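FORM 7B: Structural annotation worksheet

SECTION A. Query
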Amino acid sequence: MKKKLLILSGPTHEYLDPVRYLGNASSGKMGAALARAAFHIGWDVDVISGPVHPSNLPDLQENGTIHHVTSAEEMYAAAARLFPDVNAAIFAAAVADFRPAQKASQKMDHRDQACSLQLEPTPDIAASLGLEKQPSQKSIGFALQSHDGAQKAQEKLVNKNLDAIVLNSPNAIAADQAAYQWIDHESTSPDNWGVLSKTDCAQRIIQHLSKWFDVT
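SECTION B. Predicted structure
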């Protein structure tokens, strides 16, 4: 029986009004590369994707499904629904950490005066699902850090109940290649993978994941 993999990919958009939103420049390329690498060696793949250009979505053929969402709340709801039935999950999405506390029902007009915006945290999807993770399941996260990368990645590895985490920097956003480091619970220090294309990085991640499940 094929193993099932859930991949969270792309950004989330947290709308201030019907036009404007808080978000980031995540392209979804890593999520797509992970999906391609996984289904090519026999995984069934579900991808939950935030808003990305259609060219950055993987062609899963008959080996999976793409679920389109916009906000962090929608991504969390979709992931919570799918997670109990998968063998593994990879949290590659660049989820917005904050959203407006209130969304305006109409487009806000331009003003010459400064205005303030009250924000509230969005769901921590990886941490929330980490609480529900079963011993038979595996999960891999990403830590995009601008400083204290190894320390913060190690903290996320534990706090989100992940089996491994991939550390990168803001230079990876929307780029075709970047520097990556792999950290798992057996690591005494990060395994520095150096500069890789997202395709090569994805293949390494899927190779690690597949060894845990003897998928070849």
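SECTION C. Observations
The first helix runs from residue 29 to 40. The chain has a mean pLDDT of 93.

SECTION D. Sign-off
Analyst initials: ____
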